[in-house]
Amino acid sequence: MRLILFEDRWVERLFPVTTGRPAFAVTCGSRRLLECADRTGQPLGAVVRPHLREMVRADYPRVETLAGPVAGPCVLLNARLVPSPRLDRLLAGLLAEPRACRLLYQDQLALACVPDARQITWSPDAVPGLEGLPVEEGELPLLDYPHDLIRWNSEIFAASLERRLSQGSYQQLQDGLFLAEDVQLHETVVSDTRSGPIVIERAARIGPFAFLQGPVHIGAGCRILEHAAIKQHVCLGHTTKIGGEVEASIVEPYTNKQHHGFLGHSYLGSWINLGAGTCNSDLKNTYGRVNMDYAGRKVETGMQFLGCIMGDYAKSAINTSIFTGKVIGVCSMMYGFVTENVPSFVNYARIFGQVTELPADVMIATQARMFQRRSVAQRDCDIQLIRDMFDLTRLERQWAGWFPHST
What is the spatial distance between Cα 402 and Cα 390, in angstroms, rounded to a whole number? Predict the structure, then answer.
């Protein structure tokens, strides 16, 4: 039975996390929704925004991109689903014994099983043709806003690591410390697994005097620098470089935070570089709950600890300070104090009275240099993605009031 991951109209509320990637490719609790689907071994399809179709074809060859109507039988998965072990169990049950059903989350379609050959069409607001399927109880949460990633990351982390360990091949070096092949762990590393396991993937390197406090997941080829402190609920994507103190945060592949500085309760996309001394705040001086501002809309999170949300390709200069609960758009560069949200594609140096727009061509040239340093080929679809993201984020710069005639 084919699994179809679909993006709905609410996926844009996850910007900048989903500006340049499908929602099913976002990490939470050390896994992505695509991994949950791929583990089933079933054929995979995806309905994504038009500007991402070529990237999906290039990066996920097992996933067929769909634009028109499709016919069942299939299981539909909202691409904003939290990739929890509970979802794994539900999928396994539906694939073993298919039954017609729908699961909703706050009146939004989270999952549907279509065991017959009915035709399914797509619209931004709904999936027509499923109204007759019976609604089942049982909540499968969706990611509504970017800060939900931080909330759910901590809640599902331990169970997700247990799932990963049950499906992988690891050597248990000591109680709770699990290593894949070719991991280099310096003899002076200190690990604390009293609150959960530490899982280190293939070819990762952990430098002298690093401190690891589980539960933690360290991706393949990740490099942890000397004297780093990686604390609970941190998941680091493959090929990242990490130094300083990191707590309860998600860092996607190819991102660098290799110098001293604090990162807490935050999400960092891919190809980000944080300059030496960059720190973020994840707690208000009043110890109150953090409210987020998304495109001028105030959203109460109910969370006391919440840092920053940073989109792909963002950069910070040395000693940049990011205030609590700030959102940094894709392809932006920050200097000094970040006291407000930063739109995509800007040079942000507000403390010096300078905020300017970054042309797409500048970021394409930067992308080429970054890729070359990691021996990654820059493809036509990578270049086009930068141009598409620039166009998609024009309104961000206009909302900020700095670029009323952004072109």
Answer: 16
Residue ranges of alpha helices (H) inside 39-146 are 53-59, 85-96
* Ranges of each domain in the chain: 2-120, 147-399
User: Whose CA is closest to 293, among 153, 405, 147, 406?
Assistant: 147
Q: What is the DSSP letter of 351?
A: G
One-letter amino acid of 148? D
pLDDT in tens, 300-359: 999 999 999 999 999 999 999 999 999 999 999 999 999 999 999 999 998 777 889 999
Global model pTM greater than 0.70:
yes
**Interior CA angle at 339 toward 334 and 340, to 5°?**
85
C-alpha–C-alpha distance, residues 150 and 168, integer Å: 25
Cα 246 from Cα 261, distance rounded (Å): 8
Apex CA 165: angle with CA 164 and CA 170, to 5°? Answer: 125
Residues recorded for the chain: 407
CATH 2.30.42.10 fits 147-399, yes or no: no
Which of these, 322, 332, 222, lies nearest to 273 by C-alpha position?
332
